[in-house]
Amino acid sequence: MKGAAVDDFDSVQNELAMSLLPLINTLHNKVLETRRLRAERLVVRRQQDIQDELDVCKGQSSLEADNLFEDVVDEYASLSIIKSHLEKWKFQHSSYQQAYVSLCLPKLFTPFVKLQLVTWNPLEVKAKELDGLRC
To answer: Are residues 30 and 4 in the same domain?
Structure first.
């Protein structure tokens, strides 16, 4: 008698499991979809946070870069002005060659070039061409 009752119980349990299986699958799919949507929103939120932080850093870098030469005498605050002074010296005086100025030019121009490169991002869509950075 116990064997028949166990068989009936097993068959009822199997029927119940089979009837609940579509509901379980539906619930499982909804959970997966919810996880996927949350992950997508998290990625978008993190990308936006990174972009906001990058914008803040670029803004600070730009402000600091703009103020870098503010206390320099106007005669030496621009690469083009310094370049014109050196060209004038080169063509008007023989002491230019004797002072080996051409060997010092990279050290003179480096701060100005680095200043322009501080805010330059070659991966940006609207990035300046490298040739456009020349003074």
So the answer is: yes
CA separation, residue 103 to residues 23, 81, 84, 97, 100 (Å): 80, 19, 17, 10, 6
What confidence tens digit (pLDDT) does each residue in 97-117 have?
Answer: 888 888 989 998 888 888 877
DSSP 125: T
Among residues 21, 51, 67, the one where a domain terminates is: 67
d(CA 61, CA 119): 7
Range of the domain at 131: 72-135
> Are residues 91 and 113 located together in one domain of the fold?
yes
Contact in structure between 133 and 120 (CB atoms under 8 Å): yes
> Model confidence over 5-14: pLDDT tens digits?
666 777 878 8
